[in-house]
Amino acid sequence: MKFKSLLTAAAFVAFGAGAAQAADAIKIPINEWTGQHISAHILGSAFKEAGLEVEYVTAGAVPQFAAIAAGDLHVQPETWDNNVGDIYPKAVEAGDIVVVGETGLSSQEGWIYPPYMEEKCPGLPSYKALYDCAQAFATAETFPKGRLITYPADWGTRSKDLVELVKFPFAAIPGGSEGAMVAEIKSALATEQPVLVMFWEPHWLFADHEMHWIEWPKDDGTCGTDPAKGITTTEVGDCGFQQANVLKIANKDFAANWPKAQGVYEKFSISNGIQNVLIKEVDNKGRPLEEVIAEWMSNNESTWKAWMSGGS
Questions:
Q1: Bridge-partner residues for 29, per DSSP?
Q2: 231 Cβ contact list (under 8 Å, min separation 6)
Q3: What is the pLDDT of residues 64-112, one digit of tens each?
Q4: Each residue of 227-243: pLDDT tens digit?
Q5: Predicted confidence (pLDDT) per residue in 157-167, tens digit
Q6: Would you give the end-to-end CA distance of the chain in angstroms?
């Protein structure tokens, strides 16, 4: 879907020499989870209110970085920096991708399970219990291994890599999408079936259902270099999952090409509380994303209008 709004003559004057470049649409990638859709569309709606043209482009969470570095996509308001692949850090170091600031979200990622699994797998929430009671999480397709639902394939392979690294007796099965993963969880909860899933917060799921997190060895910052600090004594990087900073990033030329948008982007922020409520409206109540975003914009003018002040 595209949001389009022509710049007025006055806007062209205000923008000066860079106006011709800025007349093209700002392209914002849309990833595979609803929270990111919320962040992207609120930002895009704010750009539209500032008289800018916006285009939303479907892109994988890891593949998107090559397009941002090349300038084919322009801003990503919700980048989880612990799941970025190899291209992103190289592009940041080279200056092709610029970190504008933090999005405002407080994140958590890891493996979650329902509380009733603690009766079937004594020792939880410690990761150590997974070695002894993998069969409690097994299905007919994975037995005798437990079944672990991981992120969709194009979100990366961190869970699969960890399973292999520390030899957990689990089969790592990629979820087809966020919706498919949530459906798996809800189906299991309805009949108290086993389920272990790689998941993230903020998410409306935690407002409606109690889920527990697997606990990993504490990482003092040396897990990536000291084999003694993780699950094994021979491997590095085996302390579970590094928690993310959630960042606003942009192509290196974004500020020069869209100075007004840069001013808005620098001030743009979204909280867990805002996102959880809006995700629930979309995913749980089945409301159209565009309707939910339009309602939020209407009810929160003072918030997004504050982002407009000080833009060039």
A1: 57
A2: 127, 166, 216, 217, 238, 239
A3: 999 999 999 999 999 999 878 899 999 999 999 999 999 999 988 999 9
A4: 988 999 899 999 998 88
A5: 999 999 999 99
A6: 27
How far apart CA 200 and CA 183 sit, in angstroms, is 15
Q: What share of the chain is helix, strand, coil (3-state, %, to 5)?
A: 45, 20, 40
Q: 301 exposed, middle or buried (CB, 10 Å; 0-12, 13-18, 19+)?
A: exposed
Question: Is the Cβ–Cβ distance between 122 and 169 less than 8 Å?
Answer: no
Q: Is the peptide bond before 194 cis (omega within 30 degrees of 0)?
A: no
Higher pLDDT, 276 or 185: 185
Give me the long-range contacts of 133-141 (CB less than 8 A, separation at least 24): 134/168, 134/169, 134/170, 136/194, 137/113, 137/170, 137/194, 137/195, 137/196, 138/194, 139/194, 141/171
Task: Name which residue leads in pLDDT, 154 or 73.
Answer: 73
Q: Give domain limits for the chain.
A: 2-104+245-308, 108-229
**CATH fold of the domain at 108-229:** D-Maltodextrin-Binding Protein; domain 2 (3.40.190)
CATH class of this structure's domain 2-104+245-308 = alpha beta
